[in-house]
Amino acid sequence: MKKALALVLLVFLFAVQVMNSYGIQRFPKPEFESGYVQPETLMPDPRAEVLAIMDIAVLLVSLSVVSWLVLKKRSRNGVFWMSLFSLAYFGFYREGCVCAIGSIQNVTLALFDTSYIIPLSALIFFVTPLVYTLFFGRTFCAGVCPFGAMQDLVAFRPQKLGSKLNAVLGVIPYLYLGLAVLYAATGTDFIICRYDPFVGIWRLNASFGMFVFAGILLILGIFIARPYCRFLCPYGVLLNWSSRFSRRHLTITPSDCIQCRLCENSCPYDAIDIPVTVKNPEDKRTMARKLIFIIILIPVLIFAGGWTGSRLYESLAGVNAKVQLAKQIVSPPKDSNQPETFEIQAFKSSGKQQSLAFAEASAMLGKFYLGGWLLGGFMGLVFGGLIAGLMITKHHTDYIPNKGTCFSCARCIDYCPVKMP
Amino acid sequence: MKQKLIIISALVLLLALLAFMVKDFFFSKPDSINPYDLELNTIRNGDTALTSYSETGQIKTSLDEIHGLATGTSGEILVSGKDGVEIFEATGTLKNKFNIEGTAQCIAVSKNGSILLGMTDHIEIWNNNGTKLSQWNSCGADAVITSIATDGDNVFVADAGQKVVYHFDKKGKLISKIGQKDPATGVPGFIIPSPYFDLGISKDGNLWVVNPGRHSFEKYSFDGRLLSSWGIASMAMEGFCGCCNPSNFAFLHDSLFVTSEKAIERVKIYNPDGSFLCLVAAPAQFEEGTKGLDLAVDSDNRILVLDPVKKYVRIFELKKP
What we know:
By secondary structure, chain A is an all-alpha fold. Chain A has helices at 2-26, 49-73, 76-93, 100-112, 120-136, 139-143, 146-152, 163-169, 172-185, 191-194, 199-203, 208-223, 227-231, 234-244, 284-311, 313-317, 321-330, 342-350, 354-391, 411-415; strands spanning 272-273, 400-401.
């Protein structure tokens, strides 16, 4: 029933988009006829503060309701309907802005650029889901994030990827997070927003490339459930960390696990840890050897990553506007017929000295050099953690949700025959 | 096997998405094409099938800058510009040339043959021999005089700076101001974003003024009453577009309007009711960016177009069937 409803909704959404495209092609631009009085140009008022407060209120209420539905009511249906509401409100009504995922960049920029004043709503959208996750697990992902809701609607044939593939692909969000922080901290770009896959659909306005991007992601989502959330979302990294320490987290069974294995394949996100029975406990010597290896490996990987990142600083800085401008000044187009870029035209008309542009670019390169070390070091740490995670076997006897990767969607609950007393 | 294939395909798609992001972010080159640029080439190189006139002659001028064009009582062609006025025979032979102080933005010839020059903020009266007969009072520090029309007794002066038409008598005494915004009488007021503001007197003795910001012509009685207007704001051939068009106009003998435009440089003819009739000169016949194609019609109903870039008076005649 739910799948059928989701399918109908999806078809409707695409139908609206197709009609819109058809309309654009079908009708020419309007021509103003005689007698038309040009309207006065009006500057739109900024969005009313009360509406920003309403967004925050909706976020808080949604998070509370979803957390209650997951932990207290244990209702998958409730979570599903809440996710539809969030898709409608935060997605189609608010058009994907303000967004917890993108708020990473606002917070970063505010930390590194004192002239930037972060909007209160952006700050709250960044902090609140993390705080809730710290208490209740990733209930934000379950039913409040419109990105997750959008992908959840198309997860018709999810395939199991296996723990190793999940672990390897799971590194991508760390890199994305690192790059997003680097580019936001240097004031270069908000790359999370630039490659926001669904905002174009919600606004019915995006470049062709981004529509294709969103379309492919949704097609991908049929077979790999929530591909953006699992293998791209940089905010998911933070939620993953928070969720590992969550005070209360969704449990598959409300009581003791009866090892019926019914839930084993219920999770489309491969986020259920199957029991690991201890057959051959490792001796102390092996464990000590592993520990020493990890203790040595991680700093080495951090340094190696940092060094590699620092070597890439020029490439990383290549997209910065100040660096690009300096490059264009130094190397103008060889073909004299080729028109100057707008950046060069704007720079020339500003009357600024070239030395100023070079000094700014040089300072920016310095930031990227340091940023390259930090980003590389961070990725080294991530790889180190990944290797350590694969080397260390966690023993548990029940089927349990992985607190880091579980989206608390509550699908598994329905598969558990043990009901609340 | 099937599951494996699905997973591999999905992974390929995922990698393709990542590749798209990396390529788009790191390897896309800065664009030298302005995505917000108004694309005029289609119109500029558009339909010329409606061209009913052909260029039959050109008169080379020798002034540093040319701005105003008029025809005299005996068929002469007068060109005004920076520091001078040139008078040509209808055949194109230079008849006389005299110097003036400053730039005459516009020129008109009264019925008695005296030459009226619009000198930014005031009017000067000269004769054919280059003698200055009189100078009228300044219209104000903000005045930018762009056009003059006279029927002998009345002189109408278009002031783009103050967005008004002055009605003078032939001695230069101000009678009234025409076209100031007045909701009570329905006068909309002139919208003049740039100094292109033309006027003329029709055969039926009414004053026609271009309201360029509204892309329209407005017909006034000599006492300043708005009688009618026409105009089509459109990128199409039938209309006028841009910030302020048409830039100039003149009347053919049968009261048809000859209009010229800037940005899409073209000369067209409209019926007295404002319906489009034909094209005189297509954009391709002018240098791109040509502005101020002043117009005049001579006694043989030839259309004279002042081309300030090429510094020619270009003569267009109806194609013979």
